[in-house]
Amino acid sequence: MIEAKSGNGRFVHKLWHVLIQRVPDSFNIFMPLHRVLDITLPINNKLPVWPGDLGILVEPSARIVDGAPANLSRIEMGSHTGTHIDAPFHFVLNGRTVDKIPLALLMGKARVIEVPDGKQAIDSTIVESIDPGLERVLFKTQNSKRYSSKFIQDFVALTPNGASALVEKGAKLVGIDYLSIETYGSKEHETHHILLRSGVVIIEGLSLKNIEPGDYELIALPLKIEGGDGAPARVVLRSL
Ligand SMILES: [Zn+2]
């Protein structure tokens, strides 16, 4: 947005930013320029987990009400819990691990594309309609309305030909609103292989129910787990 302005427009826009940053929050009478939308699932023991995966445990280990000096918790969960990022190492023997994914890939302009209800798969015909050169694509499907503590098997997923079409279009990141981007029960995990071998970052478990389709700035930062095959991430969109 800043880049789109020129001359005086750009100067005024920057000045506006500086002014807002200098005003303490409690005195800030200006409307925020960019709305921040959280598209992360809350981590709790009601989140669905992949069949066979570890459950989620967030348990108090010390509590002030019990006389402890501070509140502390113990957290146990799989590396692909809730809203998370798949590193190439998830499916590729010597693939890049989650701590090595360039942060620049995880931040920047992204488009939320709505897949009509009733569509069970995102295939190349849907991907064909996407502008070439779009680097980050998030698919909003009926999955977002179907989150509950019970894992569902018939979630909307990206087909291998859809994945290939995305790679050909030049996508660098793709996100989806259920725990896997791949159709449940896939034996070869072809969608993951096509994306991860091409260096496309995958975000799974997005919560897009209240998000309008369109362009945003995406910020998706996974926990820096050294050597990790994936990691939970806090993912937000900022309006442009
Ligand atoms: Zn995955």
Biggest sheet strand line-up: 4-10-9-7-5-11-12
User: Uncertain regions: pLDDT < 50 for 5+ in a row?
Assistant: 1-5
CATH class of the largest domain: Alpha Beta
Which distinct ligands sit in these coordinates?
zinc ion
Mean pLDDT: 91
Give the total of beta strands: 12
CATH superfamily of the largest domain: Putative cyclase
Number of distinct helices: 4
Predict the CATH topology of the largest domain. Glucose Oxidase, domain 1
Q: What portion of the residues fall into strands of 2 or more residues?
A: 25-35%
Summarize the structure.
The protein is of the alpha/beta class and about 240 residues long. The protein is built from four helices and twelve strands, in the order H-E-E-E-E-E-E-H-E-E-H-E-H-E-E-E. Zinc ion binds next to strand 10.
Fold and architecture overview:
This protein is an alpha/beta fold and 240 residues long. The protein folds into two domains: 7-31; 79-239, Glucose Oxidase, domain 1 (3-Layer(bba) Sandwich), CATH 3.50.30.50. The chain contains four helices and twelve strands; from the N terminus they run αββββββαββαβαβββ. The strands form three sheets. Strands 4-10-9-7-5-11-12 form a seven-stranded mixed β-barrel. Strands 2-3 form a two-stranded antiparallel sheet. The chain has a two-stranded parallel sheet with strand order 6-8. Helix 3 packs parallel to helix 4. It is globular. The protein starts with 6 loop residues before the first helix and ends with a strand. 32% of the residues are buried.
